[in-house]
Amino acid sequence: MARIDYFNDPNAPKANSVVPSVTVGVRNKHGAILLIHKIDNDLWALPGGGHDAGEYIADTAVREVREETGITVEVSGVVGLYTNPHHVMKYDDGEVRQQFSICFSARMLGGEAREDGTETKEVKWVPIDELDGLNIHPSMRLRIDHYLAKRSTPFIG
Asked: Which domains does the chain have, with CATH numbers?
């Protein structure tokens, strides 16, 4: 399902839902960060997705990384909580979702990077000095920057 992101846009549609979701920052042994090229908005992002009823939120993070990238991780911390009411996503079905994302840090345990074909069209380990060359939403870039900064306290905003 295609989506349009609105960020600090006074003409954005009004949100009609909030869905808890996660993103996950993970680096390989060379220091490159795991990113996905999303099908729904054609942007690069940290792996992640929606929380399912009946699971712990950390399990959501592990599941989403594995589903979208083929990489198995272990959650190691919380980067921040991202709930900006001025960032909404409009979907084809009429849903307009306010951002509500918990960004986790994680350690890679194993697996091989691969696309899933439904949510990701490319998965790659990106060297930090190549991040500026990718099309990344400002809200996602904030999470990436906070993850890379190894903040001592989680961001809340």
From this structure: 3-156 (3.90.79.10)
